[in-house]
Amino acid sequence: MLEVTRRAAREAAELVLMGFRRAPAVEHKGAVDLVTQFDRDSEELLRRRLSEAFPFAIVGEEQGGEPDGVAFYVDPVDGTTNFVHGHPFWCVSVGLVVAGQPVLGVVISPPLGIEWYGWTTASGERHAGRLSATSAIASALLEGLASEPRADTSPARPRIVEDACTVSTNASLEDSLLATGFPYDRRESAENNFDAFVAIKQRCRAVRRCGSAALDLCLVADGTYEGYWERKLRPWDIAAGIAIVRAAGGHVTDFDGGSTSMASGHVIATNGAIHEALMSELARVVPSRRGA
């Protein structure tokens, strides 16, 4: 199942990459919520490939869908605003959810040259990995910055590296690099995460806001970030990333410590070691959502 999912995600990523930095036509789903034809084409491709291989329901950002006991959640371009503006922080995300809990995820970022994946078996075994490429494009850029041209002018070849994906072991919130995001209705709603951002950035080393929930979760999984929090997310934003964080040894809850993030859209994901500390700090500024 993992390999079929990875192949489908790679094919979609290749399709979307064709439109990167080529001024794609943009439509507005909301004041700050964008969509392009590449979003639609990527989702259509993912649906076709996954439905050819599996009998499960498919729920996607652009076409919706009815979740079943087992369903794929696909985000054809997570970080569309970044994609539209030529910012490299975007990805293709595919997650498998069983009984409301993400159990398998694949996230591919073509501009970063990284693929993250993870799954948890029915018996509780966990596996997570990261596939990365040293970019030929980056090598060519560095070549151009050199004061003297190299004698060897043959094109640089990317090198593929695959390694285990594990969360950070840092147990200090004060020494942690965190990430967050802000909801699409941030202009209209007071529940916009601004207060939490201001409070938490005073309690940790730094907070990053890069515009892709799936990638933020993957960067928790591989130890780049110690933690990530965000509210009002959609299930396709987080399904794959949650599966990967858990498979990498991390901890994911809603803001009350429960396991309802897929339903609530509220996520705290950490390496586990700082989870209680981050949740406590957020509780000071974010109202409890229990029962909401």
Report on this model:
This protein has 292 residues and is α+β, with helices and mostly antiparallel strands. The protein has 2 domains: 2-134, Fructose-1,6-Bisphosphatase, subunit A, domain 1 (Fructose-1,6-Bisphosphatase, Chain A, domain 1, 2-Layer Sandwich), CATH 3.30.540; 177-283, D-Maltodextrin-Binding Protein, domain 2 (3-Layer(aba) Sandwich), CATH 3.40.190.80. It is 32% helix and 26% strand. It is built from 9 helices and 14 strands. Strands 3-4-5-6-7-8-9 form a 7-stranded mixed β-sheet, with helices on both faces. Strands 11-10-12-14-13 form a 5-stranded mixed β-sheet, sandwiched between helices. A two-stranded antiparallel sheet has the order 1-2. A hairpin with a 4-residue loop joins strand 6 (101-109) and strand 7. The radius of gyration is 19 Å and the shape is globular. The model is unreliable at 137-150 (pLDDT under 50).
- Percentage of residues assigned to helices: 25-40%
- Report low-confidence residues grouped into runs of 5 or more: 137-150
What's the shape? globular
Kindly name the structural category: alpha+beta
Number of strands: 14
The CATH architecture assignment of the largest domain turns out to be: 2-Layer Sandwich
Number of domains: 2
- Report the CATH superfamily of the largest domain: Fructose-1,6-Bisphosphatase, subunit A, domain 1
Name the beta content range.
25-35%
Main sheet: strand order: 3-4-5-6-7-8-9
Q: Terminal Cα separation, in Å?
A: 35 Å
Order of helices and strands: HEEHEEHEEEEHEEHEHEHEHEH
Summarize the main sheet. 7 strands, mixed
CATH T-level topology of the largest domain: Fructose-1,6-Bisphosphatase, Chain A, domain 1
Number of helical regions: 9
What's the Cα radius of gyration? 19 Å
